[in-house]
Write the C-alpha cells for this entry.
Amino acid sequence: MPTNKANPYIYFGMTVSICPTCHVTIPGALTERDGKIYMSKSCATHGRFRSIVASDAEWYHAAQKQTSPSLMMKWQTKTEKGCPQDCGACPEHEQNNSVPVIEITNICNLDCPICFADNHHDYVMSDEEMEKCLDILDESGTDVDILVLTGGEPTAHPRLIELIKLCYKRKRIPRVAIATNGILLAKREKLVQELAEVGAYVLFQLDSTDPAKNTVLRGKEMTNYREQALANLEKYNVHTSILMTVIGGLNDDEIGALLEFTLSKKFLRGFEVQTMAYTGTGGRQMKFDPMTRITGTDLIRNIETQTNGLVKMSDFIPMPHPHPNCVAITYVMTMVDGTHMPFLRFTEPAVYRSAIMNQFVAHPDDRHEAVLHQMIDYVYANKDHVEKAQVVLDTLKMLLGELYPPGGETTRAQRISIVERYVKNVFLHNYMDDHSFDAAVLRKCTSMQIIPDGRMIPNCGYRVIHRKTDPRWQKHKKFNPGHGVDGLRRQLVVLD
Ligand code: SF4
Ligand code: SF4
Ligand SMILES: [Zn+2]
C-alpha cells in the first residue's frame, strides 16, 4: 500500500509571475521550506521553475503586514491584457512614481558583465525628449522624492548639466540624482564642480574594494578611478550615496565595510545595497542558481554580522511606500560625539514609520518637529534602556534647535542640508528578475522608468519584460551579445 509523503514545500499563497524563458504570464505559487520562501511556476512550453524569494521566512511574513495606502496618480495606459503586461502605468497600478528614472543615454565607458541595461552606444536624449518625459511626469500628478538619471553612463551625455537644469525647472522635482560608475568624475574635475553647482545628487557605484572581484563585476579594475572620483566629490561636497550591487559568494562579505566607510565620510549621505538582478545584456547571461541566489533578507543579516551589531536586523523596516518585499530601510543618526545610532533604537516603531513615510531621502517638513519632540520624550521616559541616552538626547535637541529655531524660520533647502549632517539612510533594494518576478510586488512599484513615448513603466518590469517595447531601442534588431557569449568585448566608445 503506497504511503503518502509530506511535501517539504508548504504552500501559502498564489501570485502572478512570468516564464523566465518566454515571458508569458503564468501563476507563481509561494511556498515555505526550512524557514525560506520560494516561488514555483510552470510554463506549458518551457517546463517547471523554482527559485528562492527570501532567505528569512519570519521577516518575509512580518513584512507582508506592513503595507501602506496607495497614493494615486493619473495613469498612462489602459488595462487590457492584465498585469504585468499593461505597463504603464495602468489603472491597476497601486502607487505613484516617487523615484522616477530616465535613461538619458545608452553610451557607456564600461561593459560590465553584470549590466542590466542593453547599451548599443548610439543614443543621447535630446532636450525635447527630456521635456516630454518631464511633461509625462507633471501630467501624472505624482509626488516626486528624487528623480534619477541613468544610462548607459549618464556622465557620457554631452549635455548632462543642461538636462539636470531642465529637471530642476519643474516644481515637482526636489532632487535630481545621477547613477554613475564614476570614471568621468575622476577624469573631469570640472564636471564634478558643475554637478555641485547645479545641486545634483550622485549615486556612486562601488561594489567592492578588491580589484579581482571588481573585475568580475565590472570587467575592469577601477581602484584609481574611484579614489580620484571620491576625492573630487568630497572636495566639492557633492551629495553622494554609495551604490553597491551584491552577488552571493562574491562580494557579500564587504557590505559591512562599505557601510562603515559611508558612515565615516561626511560628504557620503547614504548607502544603497541591491541584490544582483539577472536581467539585461550582462545579467541575463551570467550563470547562477535561482535556488541559492542572494536575497534581500541575506543583505540585512550580513549587515548585522559584518558591523558587529552597529546596525542590526531589528533596525530595519520594510520601506512603507512600495511593496514590503522591495526595500528595507534604516536611518542612522550621526551623534554629537561622532558615533552613530539607528533611529529605531530610540523611537517607537509607529512614530518611525510615519516619520519616514514615502521618503527615500530624509527631508523634514513641519510634522517632523512634533516627531523630534516625541523622540526626546521617549528617551527621557526610557533613559535606563536607551543606549548612550544622554548623547542621543543632546543630539536630538541640537537637531531640533537647528531645524526649527525658536522665533526663526528655515527654508526647505536649509532643512535638507541640516538633516543631511545628522542622518544617513541605508537601503536594501531587492530588485526582481525573470526568476523572482512577482506582479503583486510590481504593481506597488514606486520607481518607474519614464519613456518618451508617454509611458511610465515600473523599473523591474521595464528591465525584465518591457525594455524591448521601448521605441528608442527598436532599431536594435540584432541581439546584443555583450559579455560571456563569445568571449569578445564590444568595441567601447572611448571617452576622455
Ligand atoms: S505593474 Fe502596474 S502598471 Fe504594470 S501592468 Fe501591473 S498594475 Fe499595471
Ligand atoms: S524597482 Fe522593483 S524592487 Fe524597486 S520598488 Fe519597483 S518593483 Fe520594487
Ligand atoms: Zn515559457
Remarks:
- Confidence is low (pLDDT under 50) at residues 481-496.
- The radius of gyration is 22 Å.
- Residues 19, 21-22, 24, 43, 45-46 surround zinc ion (ligand 3) (CB under 6 Å).
- The chain has two domains: 71-308+434-476, 327-429.
